[in-house]
Amino acid sequence: MNYMTELYLDGNNITSTLPPHVGNLNKLTMLSLSENEITGPLPSEIGNLNNLTHLHLEWNFFSGTLPSELSNLKDLTVLSLSGNEFTGTLPSVFGNLTQLAELLLDANKFTGTLPLELGNLSSLTHLHLWQNQIVGTIPSQLGNMYMLRDLNFDNNALTSTLPSELGNLVNLTGLFLYANQLSGTLPSELGNLEKLIWFGVSQNQFTGTLPTEIGNWKDLFWIRVNENQFSGTLPTELGRFKTLNWLYLFSNQFSGTLPSVLQNLTSLQAFSIYSNQFVGTLPSWIGGFKKLSTLYLGGNQFTGTLPSELSLLSELNYFGIDSNNFTGTLPSWVGDLSNLTLLWLNDNQFTGTFPPEIGNKLDLEDFCLSNNNFTGSIPAEIQTNWECYY
């Protein structure tokens, strides 16, 4: 056993604790015990495995604080402790593990602040701390992790502004800061992240406008800035995202009309801008989003009639235009959107009779048309089959 170099015991329903004599296996380079039911603390003897390059203990029931002896593992390139019940603060000695490429500590119960010493991990490519209880600011020293490709701090309690030094992370493809308490404006230096594919800062307290420099993110796949306090008009640079699939801007204070350059986003599958202050008529070019499955425009100040080009959105599943000032009759082509499961028309100024095609052709699960000026009776198909037709 003393000559064993790799030990894989993943997914074996192992219970009890990890015994201290694991430290006797000092020839190990790989120890993988993921997806078991191991409980208790991580023994300090783990620090005796000074040849270890990969330590996988994810998705168990480990608890307690991390032993400082982890800093002895100078050759460690992957430390994966995700999905456990570890507590306490992140030890500053992590900064000594300068060979680390992946530090995965998500879905635990870590508390305290981010140690400044994390900035020493210049070889790090993946840093996952989502779903913990980390507080305080994001240290500017993290801008030293030039190799970083994936930074995920979702679901913590981080505060203050984003350091401009994050713009140094030029290899970053994913920046995830969802559900924290971050505030201030987005630094223009984020425009340096030209390899960015995923950008998520939802459910924070960011303010100001979206910086024009985000137009440098030419390979962006999705952007989620919803549920903040962003304001102003949308930058025309958004029209550069030819590969964008999801654009989530809802629950902010954006205003003005929708810029025509958005018609370049022909890969868009989800366009959600509800609960803002957008005005004007609905542009006909939205009908060019042939892959669109989600279109939420509710809670704005749109006016006018629905453009007939919307009838081209054959993939649409969710269509919400409630709480605007749309007028005119409801066009019969809505009944041709055969994939619709949700249709919210309520709180507008639609007039005329309700087209029977909607009742005959669609299999809706969620439908509301209340607070309009429709006349006549509701088609029997709607009254019979749909609970929310009012």
Ordered list of secondary-structure elements with their pairings:
Layout: E1 6-8, E2 30-32, E3 39-40, E4 54-56, E5 61-64, E6 78-80, E7 85-86, E8 102-104, E9 126-128, E10 135-136, E11 150-152, E12 157-160, E13 174-176, E14 181-184, E15 198-200, E16 205-208, E17 222-224, E18 229-232, E19 246-248, E20 253-256, E21 270-272, E22 277-281, E23 294-296, E24 301-304, E25 318-320, E26 325-326, E27 342-344, E28 351-353, H1 356-361, E29 366-368, E30 373-375, H2 380-385
Parallel strand pairs: 1-2, 2-4, 3-5, 4-6, 5-7, 6-8, 8-9, 9-11, 10-12, 11-13, 12-14, 13-15, 14-16, 15-17, 16-18, 17-19, 18-20, 19-21, 20-22, 21-23, 22-24, 23-25, 24-26, 25-27, 27-29, 28-30
What structural keywords apply?
16-stranded parallel beta sheet; 9-stranded parallel beta sheet; mainly beta; 390 residues
**What is the count of DSSP helices, taking H or I runs of 4+ residues?**
2
Total strands: the figure is: 30
Biggest sheet record: 16 strands, parallel
Helix content: under 10%
Q: How far apart lie the N and C ends?
A: 72 Å
The shape is: elongated
- By helix and strand content, what is the structural category? mainly beta
Give an account of the 3D structure.
By secondary structure, the protein is mainly beta. About 5% of the residues lie in helices and about 25% in strands. It has 2 helices and 30 strands. The strands form 4 sheets. It has a 16-stranded parallel sheet, with no helix packed on it. It has a 9-stranded parallel sheet with strand order 10-12-14-16-18-20-22-24-26, with no helix packed on it. A 3-stranded parallel sheet has the order 3-5-7, with no helix packed on it.
